[in-house]
């Protein structure tokens, strides 16, 4: 591993710890959480296996650090996309598209790998916190529209995203799945909140958001 220059021992430790978390994240991106061992992480960085114990007391602790580090990368694009939309319908479409873009770009593999890991129960609290953060901007949009059960509605709208995720992972076309998922989510929003958006509004929101994703 290249020498890390740092202003202090504390900075050096922080950089080493971050490098170990990144290495574990890379292993998870390859799709098999079982491969995330102290030995594998150390090998990836050219360190001795016992060096990892200086930073993490257990494999579970290392994986928890991965969740903490990854969560903003899952939530920030969703919040940014929704903030750029001008209407509630546009925000819902952005909510769907931003998540599916993460799936398309492979970030979802980390969450999948963690979900299937033997330490999944220990990681559940961190994953649930990330899930709440993902849903929060959608909950706020629903509250703005007067939904009397915004968190329940948000969870159900997330079902469209989950189904679309499975379709994309099964090889279906990203653009087509994304457009249909956004149309369904926006139409469902209109039905629940009584907004004026009909099929045309849903199509415009879905097409506009999908086009933005395609240009990225």
UniProtKB/TrEMBL annotation:
Which species is this record about? Yinghuangia aomiensis
**Which InterPro entries would you find in this protein's record?**
Homeodomain-like_sf, HTH-type_TetR-like_transc_reg, HTH_TetR
Q: Does the keyword DNA-binding apply?
A: yes
UniProt cross-references to Pfam families, sorted A to Z? TetR_N (PF00440)
What UniProt keywords apply to this chain's record, in alphabetical order? DNA-binding
Q: What is this protein called?
A: TetR/AcrR family transcriptional regulator
Q: Which residues form the HTH tetR-type domain?
A: 14-74
DNA-binding region as annotated in the record: 37-56
């Amino acid at each position: 591993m290249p020498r890390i220059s740092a202003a202090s021992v504390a900075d050096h430790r922080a950089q080493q710890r971050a490098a170990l978390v990144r290495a574990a994240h890379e292993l998870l991106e390859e799709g098999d959480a079982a491969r995330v061992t102290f030995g594998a992480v150390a090998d990836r960085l050219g360190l001795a296996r016992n060096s990892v114990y200086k930073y993490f007391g257990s494999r579970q602790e290392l994986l928890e650090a991965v969740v903490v580090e990854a969560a903003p990368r899952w939530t920030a694009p969703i919040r940014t996309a929704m903030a750029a939309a001008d209407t509630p319908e546009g925000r819902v479409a952005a909510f769907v598209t931003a998540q599916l873009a993460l799936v398309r770009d492979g970030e979802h593999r980390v969450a999948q790998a963690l979900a299937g890991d033997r330490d999944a129960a220990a990681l559940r609290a961190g994953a649930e916190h990330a899930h709440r953060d993902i849903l929060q901007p959608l909950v706020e949009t629903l509250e703005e529209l007067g939904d009397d059960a915004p968190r329940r509605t948000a969870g159900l709208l997330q079902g469209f995203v989950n189904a679309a995720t499975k379709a994309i992972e099964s090889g279906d076309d990203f653009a087509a799945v994304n457009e249909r998922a956004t149309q369904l989510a926006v139409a469902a929003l209109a039905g629940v909140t009584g907004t004026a958006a009909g099929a045309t509004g849903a199509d415009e929101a879905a097409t506009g958001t999908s086009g933005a994703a395609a240009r990225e």
